[in-house]
User: What shape does this take?
Amino acid sequence: MKRIAILIDGFSDLSAAKTAVSVIRYRRSEMVAVIDSAHAGQTAETVLGAGGDIPVVADLSSCPDADTLILGTAPSGGRLPSGWRATISAALRRGMTVVSGLHDRLSDDAELAALAVEFGGHIEDVRHSGCTDLATRENLRSDCLRIHAVGHDCNVGKMVVMLELEAELKRREKDAKFVATGQTGIMIAGSGISVDCVVSDFVNGAAERLVLDHQDHDILLIEGQGSLLSPMYSAVTCGLLHGCAPHGLILCYQVGRTHFRHTNVPIPPLSVFRDLYEAAMASLSPCRVIGVAVNGRDCTPEEGTLACRQIEAELNIPAVDVYRDGAGRLADAVEALRTEVLSC
Amino acid sequence: MKRIAILIDGFSDLSAAKTAVSVIRYRRSEMVAVIDSAHAGQTAETVLGAGGDIPVVADLSSCPDADTLILGTAPSGGRLPSGWRATISAALRRGMTVVSGLHDRLSDDAELAALAVEFGGHIEDVRHSGCTDLATRENLRSDCLRIHAVGHDCNVGKMVVMLELEAELKRREKDAKFVATGQTGIMIAGSGISVDCVVSDFVNGAAERLVLDHQDHDILLIEGQGSLLSPMYSAVTCGLLHGCAPHGLILCYQVGRTHFRHTNVPIPPLSVFRDLYEAAMASLSPCRVIGVAVNGRDCTPEEGTLACRQIEAELNIPAVDVYRDGAGRLADAVEALRTEVLSC
Assistant: This one.
């Protein structure tokens, strides 16, 4: 058990602070504070909509019992926000562990690295795996079911869906394992490879490496990244998809998302994604979309319910909002696919 | 004009030495020697099937007039062949420029870097761009035609097709520019970004960067990499495809290639690739496959001709072997597409 302070100073809007929100939600019992000077005195629940009465404090000196500082945002491009250096330095001077998911490697920063050495602090650059494996498509265990989350865009809830699915399958006493492929997932699961930071030649290999490392479990729930049609990030998505060689896909969809994030490029209809993901797998190994996870954070409950019904009618597979409806029906679909795959 | 010696020692089979063969073919007038101890005394033509009477020599001391050493292979995974260190050291001690397309960065090697400084040599790690651009899909010039080579697998001739197409379009006095996206292409063109060595988050951005940097030309011929269904390298291919936002695709196909390179995974029919590449672009911007480049290096001329006829009948687009037939019909297809795009 750690005692975690999470830094979001200047990045408290929900879109920017998605790392913080997820870590708070899934490591709740280890959280001692949220650092955000603009909202000091409030609670995590008020500021981020998660975390209950975890206090929001102005700076690191206000949480003297914390032993771990997690950087709670990964801005587009992954650079270190300039205002954060002082807080990171202070944490290292206290001998704390600093966990970063940025592209900028804190351990490459001479000043920060020296502070860590001098004061016994630790830097964990979770985004950097150094993975240089090439995919071979060999040695995949045939009786380990591989489920992968994909989406119509990035930041639509792919990680959360897989974490909720893992929890539901474990409640059913199934041997299911969440496999993290991004910095937030790694912060939550404690292992994984941030595939978006792997050199592109090795992305497929990194995804396959994760499968090979965890296929002693019966069911792998492999976190997804980006979108196969993302103008910005499709390289990551495509390599991850092919490298993890899924039997089944959960297609994640945010109601009301009209354009790819950070662009003016319109997002095509969901059926286009279902068809494209399946076409991209079809000739390599049998794989189909078995359910849709609908993210209703930007719509009313009624709009969310309507979206689920419309998607079910169009695609003829379960469509659920795991926050509102739970992951039960998606877990049913996973179990049904496992039965089908094992009987082949 | 350089005086180039190219090192292939231990890698003289045609598949391993594809970098060397291409550099020899397209920088013929600058070549002074091929270094390959197993074939010393022969000619480049005999050993590599290209390069005419360029001598093959045993070691660097046999080509005292060379000022540039190019490493003539990029083995799978891109590591430095262990036996090459002595030759590279000798070149740097002579103050030569050493050009490497390996993932291993020669300039990160303390011993080699120190030699370069001490003796005035230069190391050019052409695979390493440090590109961290994100794609935006903004500022693309509407009257610059973007043509991109794609394929059913890696190493099927995508670069050569675009170089031959550039030469043919220039013969027709068109303002066409080959845009290199891999280490061999960069060695030939003198600029470019090796997208397979870019961190995966930035692959789409690197491809877009290349377009933005060269779109003052009327026609860009953007080198392709890998295959959208490659189990090993699809991340590179997908990011490059979306990032360069092509209007037209040249689909490259090697007759007799049955399995993805270095794998036991069978390659699906060519029509699957045509459909998948077009589907992957369809919702982003208008794009279609305008021709097939057939690589007949492993078949008889009759088999090559038959393959071209069958592909033309099935896909209803020109299919040609640019080595045997020239790039004329593909250039016609490019010119026709340019007329069509400009009239929109």
Notes: The CA atoms of residues 79 and 202 of chain B lie 22 Å apart. The radius of gyration of chain B is 20 Å.
